Amino acid sequence: MNTEMLGVIVQVVLMIALSYPLGKYIAKVYKGEKTWLDFMKPLEKLMFRLSGINPDEEMSWKQFLKAMLTVNLLWFVWGILLLVCQGVLPLNPDGNIGQTFHQAFNTSISFMVNCNLQHYSGESGLTYFTQLFVVMLFQFITAATGMAVMAGIMKALAAKSTKTIGNFWHYLVLSCTRILLPLSLVVGLFLITQGVPMGFNGKANITTMEGSKQMVSQGPAAAIVAIKQLGTNGGGFFGANSAHPLENPTYLTNMVECLAILLIPMAMTFAFGFYINRKKLGYTIFGVMLFAVLVGISVNVYQESHGNPRIEQMGIAQHHGSMEGKEVRFGAAATGLWSVATTATSNGSVNGMHDSMMPLSGMVEMLNMQINCWFGGVGVGWMNYFTFLIIAVFISGLMVGRTPEFLCKKVEAREMKIASIIALIHPLIILTGTALATYFFIHAPEFVAKEGGWLNNPGYHGMGEMFYEFTSSAANNGSGFEGLGDNTPFWNISTGIVMIIGRYLPIIGQVAIAGLLAGKQYVPESSGTLKTDTGTFGVMTFVVIVIVAALSFFPAQALSTIAEHLSL
Amino acid sequence: MKNLIKSLRITIVFCIVFAVGYVLVLWVFAQFASPNKGNAEVVTLHGKVVGVANIGQQFGKDIYFWGRPSCAGKGYDGASSGASNKGVTNAKYLKEVEVRVDSFLVRHPYLKRKDVPAEMVTASGSGLDPDITPESAYVQVKRVAHARGMNESVVKDLVDKHVQEPLFGLFGPAKVNVLKLNIALDEASKK
After folding, report:
1. How far is B67 from chain A (nearest CA, A)?
2. Taking CB atoms and an 8 Å limit, are A355 and B86 in contact across chains?
3. How far is CA A442 from CA A33, A469, B89, B90, B92, in A?
């Protein structure tokens, strides 16, 4: 067994092993039980007092959503203002200028929705001030938003019958102070010892050994790298993201950063089981997600380690796999693993360039985002799975001739309608966007030329670049086939809109379903109840997800990644 | 409206906790626990700073080991990291790789085509990759030794010493940091 494979295996094992206790802990936090971080209470009290919030005030699901949407709207304006004005704000040693309005529009949305799509490069497109007061701030609070909403849904599902689902602000602050902040501190401190910069000096000015000039960007990177990995954010400090040697300097940092991607999303799945006191249901969901992720990892690690056949044909020595767009210190296998972890969750950070990966790897990456619930974003990934659970319950109920019930609540037409709309909106926005872009590309070449030509690659792969961009936006992932010239009005505005729809419509629908279920009468379990925590039901859910989510994309995949693979 | 005021107030509170508090804790820690007080770690040759330890540099002279092709700016631009983002079937890209193979062979006439390591003709992800694989270093030994008038076995020993084994000898690939190897080379030939 070679060391690259061993590295992959140990990373996967560590993820699973660590997410289990964390899941237990997270369930306790949201239930308000005692934990060893209770010494944070005074800080939390102070935060509530300064904000004029009463954390014990119970909210109905509608009030909960209103609070969530209002604070997000404020963040949107906050982001745009600071990004446009960053040139004149402090902490700008490199003298970078403000973003254009359409770029700031895209960037602000992108970070507000926890997507972290970046149509700029960190070294020149932001200042240290906006890195911290927009990017990093949003990486904490938007991740916390997703977790807070999931906490509300868990509360709704755990109760026998209730009109309220907890307090949004309370969950928001708890997610920050009890989960994201402590973990980020641990990861951040570790990264600093490994040589990730955490200072405020501008570029280092170096005269190289051969006598030429080299400017090296640096800055407060460690603070951002930690939370961008943990909060399924993914927006890197530097343009090359975690492929950059200062953002991810060693194989050990790579292991920690890759682990951090899946840690909380995995833990949230366990947390659900513990919270509603149905551990077996938690394990079943975890099992289905893990199975899907492992399949993806196998494909990508195999594809990348075996190299590019076109390079093989040149007759040179390709012993280390396909190395275009990859870094020697990680190797092809670890990059294959990361590419799956980052797309299965809605993280979107990269340690090698997806645009240069093998076509089938690209297919797995896109499929992960198109399904968007194999662990998924912190909180919201599990919520997407919850949508499919509702659909699976309904279909299975009809198949065996029983009233569809989930957690002792009847699932009726209204919930089913909402779930179906959410499930269909995702393919709708991705495919519409891609269709529009390809239409322009073919039929309005002058317009595309004016925007810089967009594509970096011809043929099937070029179409893949556009398809990937909309997929990544809708899934709030933020990775890209980065060859796409995407800092243009068309891409900034269209993906901005797709990101907003892809974030808020599902959340609103999922909270509504949970709120409606919570308000219903409690139906005690009987021998006639459909069991949702069995392996059979897990398989059923998996099948529903594959049919509803994955197959809608088959034609578009066939025209891009699959066609490219067949032409190898 | 009530929600909006709460939103604004809590956002400012979050700013204080994260963008100030959390950042300050890490910054203070970096002052004594990081390799260079929170700035990028630098390496020196004869007391002069010649590079950032983890950032690759452009090497093209025969007396030095070379790093991988770079697409950061005009090559190893530390202020503009980036990759080629070329697809694996892109014909133009494949031609580019062919050209790199040919010029590598011209500069290393003692090599056969099948000895050219793929990572030496494909661009890295960051464009700043500081490392090459041990094989990529060994194929350059003869050229470097010849250009410096050094004994091949001396140069090879130097490479041996600079091969960084996998983490704990178990995980991940072995590698050679090109910049550190070249510094050692300059120091060795001065003696």
Report:
1. 11
2. yes
3. 59, 18, 21, 19, 21
Same domain, B35 and B65: no
Question: Cα–Cα distance between A363 and A367 in angstroms, integer?
Answer: 6
Q: Answer yes or no: do A74 and B11 touch at CB < 8 A.
A: yes
Domain enclosing residue B96, as ranges: 42-190
Same domain, B33 and B55: no
ipTM: 0.95
Contact A325 B58 (CB under 8 A): no
What 3-state DSSP class applies to B10?
helix
Closest CA to A515 of A154, A174, A56: A154
- DSSP character for B50? E
Nearest CA in chain A to B121: A324
The answer on B114 and B71 residing in a single domain is yes
A167 neighbourhood in chain B, CB within 8 Å: none
**CA separation for the pair A493, A105 (Å, rounded):** 8
Of the candidates A7, A243, A324, which has its C-beta nearest B122's C-beta?
A324
Regarding whether B76 and B123 lie in a shared domain, the answer is: yes
Kindly report the number of other CB atoms within 10 A of residue A453's CB atom.
Answer: 12
CB within 8 Å: A240 and B127: yes
- Chain A residues within 8 A of B147 when measuring between CB atoms: none
Across the A:B interface, residue pairs with CB atoms under 8 Å apart total: 378
Per-position pLDDT tens, chain B of length 191: 789 999 999 999 999 999 999 999 999 999 999 988 999 999 999 989 999 999 999 999 999 999 999 999 999 999 999 999 999 999 999 999 999 999 999 999 999 999 999 999 999 999 999 999 999 999 999 999 999 999 999 999 999 999 999 999 899 999 999 999 999 999 988 65
By CA distance, what is B98's nearest residue in A?
A314
